[in-house]
Specification:
Elements (H helix, E strand, L loop, with lengths): L27 H8 L7 H35 L3 H4 L6 E6 L5 E7 L6 E5 L10 H8 L4 E5 L17 H15 L6 E6 L1 H12 L2 H4 E7 L6 H4 L10 H12 L10 H12 L6 H13 L2 H12 L14 E6 L7 H10 L3 E7 L6 H4 L1 H18 L12 H6 L1
Parallel strand pairs: 3-4, 3-5, 5-6, 6-7, 7-8
Antiparallel strand pairs: 1-2, 2-4
Helix pairs in contact: 4-15, 5-6
């Protein structure tokens, strides 16, 4: 028998008719699915897709790990790896700069031997000279290498001063603290280190402190408009300069590229075609260790630099060395520097060499520095040898 009408459940109301073309409001999630042409998922489907995404992430991580291991194997298989993995260490000296920055220096080789002072470049450290330190200190030279302010083991400037003038004053502080009284050293700089030497020469007595100088892979003016890292066609220098300043001096951290990609970027910017993986990785560690604010502050100083006039005060025999494939400071800079020097000793262009000549061409760079130092030593008057005191004639000739 049918139950009474009062006991039946109420009938559902028929849905109201909607205008033609009406679409019910969708949740943001369903809207995204519709835009991406992905059908709505049930609980089982969602769990399956999350699982697949997790598997994809694990696969990508595994692929990155495999690539990283392959990259490490390439580095360790490089014949240069054993030496670069344990570069020479010297006797540490802390030197106070004028503004309170503590400069870290190391001394290699026998005391009493002729002194060669080495200044490294931008985003580097004193160990960039590892090959030259090893070669020269074994050949009866006393080698002093130091970390520029904010680089390596030197402290940051307490006032944030990374001007080219500050780097020049640091050269004077190193010479006073690390070169025996009365001795004239051979002073060599790579990239920013060479710029520091030119800045130092502008405001300090050159012939009283050094007997010869070496400027390696460097420039003193127009760094932003003459580099070959990137050069879009038909862009005026007034536009290209700020673009270069932004790209080369970006204050951010080094992106976490895959090892192979970062190797390719660094190799393109800073090295020539014959550099080995261990040499590129050796510099990469220095680049990553350089604080972002130091890197950016120094780049800003270099972007406005003009030391061409300062070269007239570098009155000692000066070696100018460049790499034929240097994109940061092309050989045109070396020719301009040589033309402005009062006493250029040699102008050398190393073939198939990028900006990192001390790493890429260790034997050749060591040879030319050794020849420069030997000539400087031989040119001293016999009475002056062993005392380090330059004769009146030697100072005049310089």
């Amino acid at each position: 028998a049918r139950p009474p009408r009062s006991a039946r459940p109420p009938a559902r109301a028929a849905p109201a008719r909607q205008p033609r073309g009406h679409r019910p409001p969708a949740t943001p999630y369903r809207s995204l699915l519709r835009v991406c042409n992905i059908p709505a998922m049930g609980r089982v489907q969602r769990r399956a897709r999350v699982a697949l995404a997790g598997v994809g992430g694990l696969t990508a991580a595994a692929a990155w790990a495999i690539e990283h291991r392959r990259y490490e194997r390439r580095i360790t298989a490089d014949p240069e790896y054993p030496f670069l993995s344990a570069p020479p260490t010297g006797r540490a000296i802390d030197v106070a700069a004028r503004d309170g920055t503590v400069l870290h220096a190391e001394v290699f080789g026998p005391e009493g031997a002729p002194t060669i002072v080495l200044a490294h470049g931008w985003t580097e450290a004193l160990r960039i000279w590892a090959y030259q330190i090893d070669d020269l200190s074994r050949r009866d030279f006393r080698v002093v290498a130091y970390d520029l302010r904010g680089h390596g083991q030197s402290t940051k400037s307490p006032t944030g001063d990374y001007s080219i003038g500050a780097f020049g004053d640091d050269v004077e502080a190193i010479l006073r603290a690390c070169v025996p009284a009365g001795e004239r050293a051979v002073l060599v700089g790579h990239s920013l280190g060479a710029m520091s030497i030119a800045s130092w020469a502008e405001r300090h007595p050159v012939a009283e402190r050094v007997s010869a100088a070496g400027l390696v892979s460097t420039g003193v003016v127009d760094l932003l408009t003459e580099h070959m890292v990137f050069r879009p066609p038909r862009i005026p220098a007034a536009v290209f300069r700020p673009i270069s300043a932004y790209v080369l001096g970006a204050p951010g951290t080094i992106p976490g590229f895959s090892p192979s990609l970062l190797d390719a970027v660094i190799r393109y910017v800073a090295f020539g075609p014959t550099a080995g993986p261990a040499q590129v990785a050796f510099y990469e560690r220095m680049l990553r260790d350089c604080p972002a604010d130091v890197r950016a502050g120094t780049a800003a100083a270099m972007s406005n630099m003009n030391l061409l006039g300062a070269l007239s005060r570098l009155t000692v025999p000066t070696l100018v060395l460049a790499g034929s494939r240097d994109r940061l400071t092309p050989p045109s800079h070396a020719r301009r520097i040589a033309a402005a020097l009062p006493a250029p000793a040699e102008v050398v262009e190393l073939p198939l060499t990028g900006h990192m000549a001390p790493l890429e061409r260790p034997a050749e760079v060591s040879y030319w520095l050794r020849a420069l130092a030997t000539r400087a030593q031989d040119s001293a008057a016999p009475a002056d040898r062993g005392t380090g005191t330059p004769s009146r004639s030697a100072v005049h000739a310089a």
